[in-house]
Write a structure and sequence with these properties.
Blueprint (H helix, E strand, L loop, with lengths): L2 H26 L10 H6 L4 E2 L12 H8 L2 H24 L3 H19 L1 E2 L6 H15 L6 H5 L3 H5 L1 H7 L1
Helix pairs in contact: 1-4, 1-6, 4-5, 5-6
Length: 170
């Protein structure tokens, strides 16, 4: 295999490990010891920050939207489930190289939502969510590379007959 395939594998596996760890940490409560909920993040972590802004100022134009979601217990519960399951599923799929393009697109969507909700630009616009999202976009464009289960699954007869599935694999 060439260096491009090794590079794609390293990027894909590294990003996958980041997603998987984030989801598993929330599921098993390793860091906090308490069940994960996004409610306090939605209320207090979405105020945003800008270069030189007051730490108490609300600079995120979408802040009221996230606070309104925090006030709905059913939506918060849905968000909590989607975040935990999504992070784990995206992470495992990227590590294995299975449904790689689809997983990378879902990772990009998740990071875009976090980027907008967080709105943290106190150190400039290139924060953690931006970088994770950029890596996910790169994987969505390039595909899984040679070190992936997608290369095996893509050879199945049923996948060969459905081009969109073959593309989503990576």
């Amino acid at each position: 295999m060439d260096t491009k395939d090794r590079g794609i594998f390293i990027l894909r596996a590294g990003l996958g490990l980041g997603f998987a760890f984030a989801g598993l940490d929330k599921f098993f409560m390793w860091a906090s010891g308490v069940p994960f909920t996004s409610m306090s993040y939605l209320k207090f972590g979405t105020t945003g920050a800008w270069l030189g802004s007051d730490a108490k100022a609300i600079v995120n134009p979408t802040h009221s939207f996230w606070v309104s979601i925090a006030g709905n217990g059913s939506l918060v519960s849905l968000f909590d489930t989607l975040v935990v399951f999504g992070e784990i599923a995206i992470g495992v799929a990227l590590i294995l190289g299975l449904a790689t393009r689809f997983s990378a697109v879902m990772g990009t969507l998740l990071m875009t939502l976090l980027f907008v909700s967080n709105w943290s630009f106190a150190n400039g616009p290139f924060n953690e969510q931006f970088m994770y999202g950029l890596a996910a976009v790169a994987i969505a464009i390039t595909g899984a590379g040679a070190y992936a289960l997608d290369t095996v699954v893509a050879k199945l007869a049923i996948v060969q007959k459905v081009p969109v599935v073959k593309y989503a694999l990576g």
